[in-house]
Design a protein that fits this description.
Blueprint: H1 5-31, E1 46-55, E2 61-73, E3 78-88, E4 96-106, E5 112-122, E6 131-141, E7 146-157, E8 160-170, E9 175-185
Antiparallel strand pairs: 1-2, 2-3, 3-4, 4-5, 5-6, 6-7, 7-8, 8-9
């Protein structure tokens, strides 16, 4: 074998290609997406088609919360509910049913904050049409049968309509108080 410029350049080129190939493969391994790091905080739970039963101090059922999904966010000490329905038990004489797109319940709290197409409705009573209250947000305190909001509300009683800003309803006593800017439409 002769040591000439052609042989030296050929060997140098082969060694350079080998080193670049090794570096290229090493770089691709480092650039590959890595798995997400494990979460350092506590993990919560996730439920589908959940039913939560609320009871009084003696353990008797008061109401039932139905949700399409429930997710616990332990870091925020919060339960997040989707597609929410709240029904009082028949023996409690509360004719109201509540529906909402979303609900939030702080852990160890006695209220439920509802939002998104909130509808509070009764059934027909003594020949009078159903009463329906619609708003975008509402706080329900189910143990004391109180629903309230400071948001705009629309109240439908049969074919009558009242609009207001803010409301407080005692669901057990069947009492509704509209707070401000009350306007109504009544057909003769």
């Amino acid at each position: 074998m002769y040591l000439n410029l052609k042989n030296v350049l050929g060997v140098t080129l082969l060694i350079s290609i080998a080193i670049l190939s090794w570096l290229w493969n090493r770089r691709n391994v480092d650039d590959e997406p890595r798995l997400a790091p494990t979460r350092s905080g506590p993990l919560g739970y996730y439920l589908s088609d959940a039913q939560i039963l609320g009871t009084d101090a003696d353990g008797r059922p008061l109401y039932r919360v139905l949700a399409g999904t429930v997710e616990e966010l332990p870091d925020e000490r919060l339960l997040v509910l989707r597609d929410v329905t709240v029904e009082y038990q028949p023996g409690n004489d509360v004719p109201w049913m509540l529906r909402a797109t979303r609900g939030e319940v702080p852990i160890n709290a006695s209220y439920l904050d509802l939002s998104g197409d909130v509808e509070l409705a009764t059934s027909l009573q003594d020949g009078v049409g159903a009463t329906i209250i619609r708003t975008e947000q509402l706080r329900l305190e189910p143990q004391i049968y109180v629903a309230e909001t400071s948001a705009p509300v629309s109240v439908f009683i049969g074919d009558r309509r009242l609009d207001a800003v803010g409301m407080r309803a005692d669901l057990k006593a069947d009492h509704l108080a509209l707070e401000s800017n009350v306007h109504g439409q009544f057909r003769p």
